[in-house]
Batch of 2 targets.
Target 1
Amino acid sequence: MRSLFEWVDALPSSIALRESLNAYPTMLTIHVVSMCLFAGLIAYWDMRLVGLTLRRVPVSNIPTRLFPWALTGYGINLITGGLLLYSQPMRYYGNFYFWAKMVLMLIAGINMFWFHYATYKSVQAWDQGREIPLNARLAGVVSLVLWAAVVVTGRMMAYSGLMPQWWNNLNIGA
Amino acid sequence: MLQSFFQWMQGLPFSAWMLEETWASPIIQCAHLVALVAFAGAVLVVDMRLLGRGLIKTPLNQLAREMDRWMIWSFVALFVTGAPQVLSTALKQYYSPFFWWKMQIVIIGLLFNFTIRRRVAFAEEGSLGHWPKVVGFLSIGMWTGVSVYARLIGLLS
Ligand code: HEM
Ligand code: HEM
């Protein structure tokens, strides 16, 4: 893994992005705005599953009508996030919050697929309902917590001085 | 006048505490972003509907009434997590043009919401021609502008 990061770090295109004055602010700003589109919509979907809001909207309406937008936001988010990483791989390689964010995103993705291919199959039975199955409500809570944690770890990546002691002891960045 | 007000804010014991306490600023910043996500979703659900996208099978005024609370409370959360940052970095904010642009658009956005946007969203659907689209477009534009300027305060000043 380390050699992959070092290899990218030495690529001319990575160096060019790193040395550009405008690239970092532009990508980070687009990263935050696209996050709003993705995470903002997903949050209300999760809260619908939990039963906190939009209770009169049929559950299945949200994936069909809002997911294309949320996924567009996610796509832009991944591209800008990927470019940020590409431009300074060695800055993030030893960063606890970066790896935590990646793991959290992975778990959030597994939760999403699991929900979609298991619990969601029976949606016809509870589409209009106020009675959402426990599994669906749990998936909603888990998703809310995980995406909030992704936002938090995303912001914390800037604080390389505030990583847990046990992580620093591993000396990964050095 | 304004400058001495910002100097006064910077000099408050609370500001000194924020800067000294290692975790205070990062926690507040993270909370500001989580509140931002809640705010963005509440705004977008209605604005997309105004644009004729999103949850079109649900009556607009029903959606707007439901999202109203979420929008207001998440704005309160943005204010509560934004104000301490203004206090602790008052002079940096004062000298950043982006901060002033952000605050101007925030005020215009709020006025726009409570005068025009809400009225249009609560109105009888189909009675206003193309105006709902214009309103949805402006609303998305303003809050996006707020976010862009907000992020640039930290990056470019
Ligand atoms: C492959 C996916 C992603 C990658 C590689 C990635 C990478 C990055 C990088 C490199 C930064 C800059 C950190 C810094 O220099 O301070 C960042 C910031 C951030 N990311 Fe991501 N990211 C990804 C997806 C996401 C997602 C899905 C979310 C939220 C739902 C998210 C939320 C954030 C936030 C809130 C910040 C901080 C922005 C700020 O400082 O204002 N990221 N990300
Ligand atoms: C009156 C309410 C608000 C106040 C007092 C406030 C204040 C602040 C301050 C002082 C910062 C730190 C800027 C810096 O020095 O880097 C900030 C960051 C930010 N604010 Fe606000 N804000 C408010 C409302 C909003 C709203 C309504 C939005 C979006 C619609 C927003 C979006 C952001 C964003 C995206 C950031 C950058 C976050 C980061 O990565 O650190 N804020 N805010």
Target 2
Amino acid sequence: MAEKLPQHDHQGKSDCQDKCKEFDLQKFYLVLDGEANSAQTQQLKAHIADCYPCYQHYDLAVAIRKILQYKITKKCMSIKDIEEIRARISQMV
Amino acid sequence: MAEQANTTYTEREKYYIFNEEFMPHIDPMYNFAYRLTLDEDDAKDLVQDTYLKAFRFINSFQKGTNAKAWLFRILKNSFINDFRKKSKQPAKVDYSEVESFYNSDEAETGVTTTTTDLRAEMVQDLIGDEVATALNSLAVDFRIVIILCDIEGFTYEEMARILDIPIGTVRSRLHRARNLLKEKLRLYAKKMGYIKEKE
Ligand SMILES: [Zn+2]
């Protein structure tokens, strides 16, 4: 039974989430993505100030966004390749 | 490609728009192309192709609208229609399957909980290569929504336009993509010993 994590035994009914009716990842993402209205945003901020499990989920979502933004190497096109585009454009008349 | 009324620009205006409104986005465009193709040469070709198309169809671009979203849409369409056909990459995702899965109760309850043992602190310790590998391992349709939203900061509405799908679908696909990514990151964290198997 070592493979099974105890809190996942009941398909989605983990302890922390059972205790919180407010848990809703879709709603968290709306706030995170700046797509929620200010009432929804305030409500979530107030809630996670009091609810540790929800705070952790939200915090994790924020952390994942940060690593995506800052840890993945940004690729740049070489000057030569950019010049090639400009050259081909100027040939198109 | 053009769905709006065209404007007829003079040659001079065309070059101006191209240089001032299109070229400044070349780095995000190249980045996007690279994350789609996972190959520098292919990314270069895809970007070049996109810019040539953008110039050719410049009359369908409305000045003052979001050039970056307009360009991203052309790039994504080029990738799906031309590029992916040429390369032997198999089509990876059946949308209907994915979307209906997501809308089912099973998904509502099942997916979100698999990652409760992953914590923000563990994620912060991952290195860039691991994050990139996790992202790259997602099916391209899921990778795209993460790139557009989390890396490029497009709004849901812009994403809907870039991808030609309804906003509701953007939202559900993004949710699913994030869950999948979280699961990949969780595997890394586990491999590194941050997450211990419980008895
Ligand atoms: Zn809560």
